Amino acid sequence: MTRAIALVDCNNFFVSCERVFRPDLEGKPVVVLSNNDGCVVSRSQEVKNLGMKMAVPWYQMRDMARRHGIIAFSSNYTLYADLSNRVMSLLAQFSPDQEVYSIDESFLDLTGIPDNHTQYAQRIRETIRRCVGIPVCVGIASSKTLAKLANHIAKKNPRFGSVCDFNALSEKELNELFAAIDVREVWGVGRRSADSLNGMGIHSVLDLKRASAKRLREKFSVVQERIVNELNGVACLELDDVVPDKQQIICSRSFGALTSLLPDLEQAVVAYATRAAEKLRQQHSLADGIQVYIRTNPHKGRDPQYQQSVLMPLPEPTDDTRLLCHAALHGLRRIYRAGYAYQKAGVMLSGIIPASTRPRTLFDNAVAQEKSHTLMRTLDRINRSMGSGTIKLLGEGTDTSWAMRRDHRSKRYTTEWSELALCPA
Question: How confident is the model over 147-202, as pLDDT tens digits?
């Protein structure tokens, strides 16, 4: 039985999320910007056709945007994460084995599903579009690397109707497709390795497929050997059913405006430690240390420069937001220096272990631990149901003039009561 791995990829995901609740944006040039409205991180096809590149600074594109009527949105991660979860939940219904690869990509194992896989993938596309409003493309093949490549062809080649099944194509048809695709499009081939491969006369996907796996392993690593094997249909990468717990959790942001005030930094650090603690509890883990860092803007060379970090060990592993924030604030006050204009702050949780393996000591206070667990569980439940930040520590404050700039953010249509989408009368 031929293995069938599908990669389902949302098209221009951030832009597509913005269009779900703004159907008037269909067919119009739209971009989504990075933190602090810095760079372009998502483009509609109309913008791509105009020649705007990914990751270009937005301030350099404003004249072009005015000329062509390009509509810009600040990143709305709350909306994107919620719609991603809805897409992934629907995809789980189409296969017993799913690997959520990123916010907008998921692998599905279709091996053994008796339906015509192309028709089955079209049903997946129709379901996602109808239930969530997000367009997707599907690539199907016998390995994950080939599935990624099939997805690329499904997006770029209109004749496939957004679904490309390599298993349904002949060897001759596959080789013709591969000969026309640059080797840089292969999953796992970076810019530097692509330059080295070009130097060896390997320019297309077909060239790489026909290359000696042993020779590439000797020149590069076992990774390149696996890529060649996967391009030849030999599956070397299995689906990961369970995403491994993170061993470090980082939360940081650049400020929307520089600040030299300790109270502003304290509010930022409390907010970041709170988000990190939430992520820690989501994976049912504990941390035994929290690192805090602050820095000025290294690109303002004429300004006084300062950056520093400190690791604060905890008396015992915890997931309690209050204890993590207390330690983070203590660390911040140790490294803070007046007279500098700070651009960024952040926290990193370390020493992460599963909550089920919490070490026991003679000095454990079981009652206090149970109260902490109950409080944090209640806090998370309310914030999940009523919206992030509904209940928060006073230390986060209400004056967030230092916060990340989002001058063009859309509404959080699905997660904030005051911003829910309303049907027209």
Answer: 999 999 999 999 999 999 999 999 999 999 999 999 999 988 888 888 888 988 88
Q: Enter the tokens of residue 357.
A: 């393996």
- Phi, psi dihedral angles at 419 (to 5 degrees): -120, 10
Please check whether residue 274 is in contact with residue 392, taking contact to mean a CB–CB distance below 8 angstroms.
yes
The CATH H-level (homologous superfamily) assignment of domain 5-168 is Reverse transcriptase/Diguanylate cyclase domain (3.30.70.270)
CATH architecture label of 249-396 = 2-Layer Sandwich (3.30)
The two counts, helices (H) then strands (E), for the chain are 14, 13
Question: Structure pTM?
Answer: 0.73
Q: Is 188 exposed, middle or buried (0-12, 13-18, 19+ CB in 10 A)?
A: middle
Beta bridge partners of 294: 308, 345
For the chain, the domains span 5-168, 171-231, 249-396
Residue-by-residue DSSP string for 95-136: -S-EEEEETTEEEEE-TT--S-HHHHHHHHHHHHHHHT---E
Cα separation, 211 vs 283, whole angstroms: 42
CA-nearest of 347, 204, 191 to 268 is 347
Give me the residues paired with residue 33 across strands.
40, 74
CATH architecture of 171-231: Orthogonal Bundle (1.10)
- Going 217 to 222 to 223 to 226, the CA torsion angle's sign is positive
Torsion (CA) 281, 282, 283, 288 in degrees, nearest 10: -20
Instruction: Output DSSP code: residue 202.
Output: -
In the chain, what are the helix, strand and coil shares in percent, each to the nearest 5?
Answer: 45, 20, 35
- Looking only at Cα atoms, what is the longest distance across the chain? 71
